[in-house]
Every structure is written in structure tokens, then in C-alpha cells.
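Morning, I've got a small favour to ask if you have a moment. I owe you a coffee for this, so here goes:

…
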Amino acid sequence: MNTHGAISFIQEHGVVLASAKGPVPRLTEVIVNEPIRGSWWAHPKSREIFAVLQAVMDSEDVLVCRLVNGKITLVHRRLWPALVRVAKRFPSRRIAQVHEEHTDSGRHITREVPFPKWVPAKVLVHAKSMSEEEALTALGTWVLRSNKRLEWTR
């Protein structure tokens, strides 16, 4: 799968985990079209996985955050208004924008842009026009299950 196919998959599903197991699809498994046991870094197609993940995470149409279970989550732009509308349901660290960098020396650097600083003005306007029910429906059933657990972790 190439970058375009991966972004189309994220657009279709709206919310996707990069590689962790959870209540939404895992992009790494879609990239190689098979289940991955253990770390994807050990997979024979790890270079392909890395290249596609990096390109997807650099896309302006994808928010990288820790929305689902605190794991790296990819949210397509079409759901940003819904996410903003129900943002109060999530700890702010879950909806901060995450930027991951791999330096030339091999170090891994993570930077975060706090919510709502990453949110475009048009998205804020659109979010205000949505009802909470519309937003939750758009995000999917996983959010209702997750929110029950979040109530205990705030």
C-alpha cells in the first residue's frame, strides 16, 4: 500500500491506530495486508511500513494524537470538527497534536501542540454548528465505549 491508499483508508474509517491494538483498525496491518505479531519493526516489510507511516503522519489531512487508549492515533480531517465538538470528553493530552521525528543520529523526538492550538479556525466554526450527538455519531461507537473508561481516569 502506498501513501495515497493509506490516507484513503484513514479517510474512510476516520479514526485509525498507527500500530497499537484497540477498538479501531491498525494502519500497520493494512499497509502489509496481514496481521502483525509483535513489533512491526521486526516485520519483513518494516521499511515500507515506516515510509508509509511517516508520509501519512506528515499529511495535512491527518491529525496525529493519542486519542484512542493513549496510543498514536490518526484522525482524518473530515472528523476534526466532531473531535473538537466533544473535546471536553477527553483529557487534553489525548487530543494534543503529536509530531514525531527521527533524527539523523537515530534519536526519536516527540513534540506536542496542545489542544486547541492546532485547530484551524474553519474547523472551530464547523464544530460549533454540530450537536454533541452528531459529533459522537461521526466519531463512531468506539468513543462511547472509551468514554466510560475515561470517566474513571480523569
In short: The longest strand covers residues 97-102. The chain has a mean pLDDT of 92. The two ends are 38 Å apart (CA to CA).
